[in-house]
Amino acid sequence: MYIFLFLCYLVKANAMMLHFWGYPSSEEESKSCTLNTAADFQGCMDLCSGMEWCMLSYGNDTTCILCDIYTISSITQSDSSKGIEIAVKVDVQNSCPVEIVSNVYTYKLFSSNAGVTRNNALASCETYGGWLAGFENIIDYNYIFNTARSLFPTPLNYQYLTVWISGLMKTSCQDDTGTANCAGIKAFGEFPNQNNQDLYRFPPGYPNLTKLHNGYYQRGLQLTWSQQLTAYNGMVTNAATEFACNGEQKICAFSYACGILGKA
Q1: Where in the chain is the domain with CATH 3.50.4?
Q2: What is the residue range of the signal peptide feature (predicted)?
Q3: Does residue 124 contact residue 110 with C-beta atoms inside 8 Å?
């Protein structure tokens, strides 16, 4: 029996552990989990329960393996004959909440075969009560990057595809390429519910703070992945918010990441 995990993120401490016999279905996904030390499996469960980013623990009284959120997509339920226990962090109803409530932060990724501007992407996120989402840890980054790529599994006739993420150039940094206050990520603001932008890595030549030939500034941030070229793969670039593609039609945004925080 397979149990599929919803992509929910519990950000408060009122979660509990749902404990049963089972193990992650994918050996490949399990490679992202970490081996830890615990006196017994109850101690292993306690370790996961006390860690903000831990989604589940599995093993037995001599082995403790912890998995972060978004690393495991499904679980195989078994019995005692396998000797493997698993405990999944859930809310007090023993499930990922169906509705967005105060302790849940949810990512939603959307795509458009016609391309999408940042302005339209932001407007769409706002209809869900959300915003353009970014990443402040490797779990968030991997989820946005891998999910966006999975929406377009067949390479298209572009150098790169991109997904719009949080980050908008500060007005004070337009045309300013020399001051420390506008160097790199400092040139951008609008990072809702993010404490850092340490994983926002720019390729050489970016961010490009100059005005385009058509008079528009490249104000919005995107996460980029390879199609025909590879140098920008997995890196952040900036582009004009009014267009889906750059001037040469070689880098195009076909998706965007929304973040929705439960209402208090």
Answers
A1: 2-90
A2: 1-15
A3: yes
- Nearest to residue 100, comparing CAs of 195, 10, 166, 192? 10
Class for the domain spanning 104-261: alpha beta
User: What is the Cα–Cα distance from 1 to 21, expressed in whole angstroms?
Assistant: 11
> What does the chain come to in residues?
264
Q: What is the pLDDT of residues 150-180, one digit of tens each?
A: 888 888 899 999 999 999 999 888 876 668 8
Number of Cβ within 10 Å of residue 235's Cβ equals 17
Instruction: List 223's β-bridge partners, or say none.
Output: 163, 236
In the chain, ranges of CATH 3.10.100.10 domains: 104-261
In the predicted model, what is the mean pLDDT of the chain? 82
Residue 37 structure tokens = 């030390």
Element (H, E) at 101: none
CATH number for region 2-90: 3.50.4
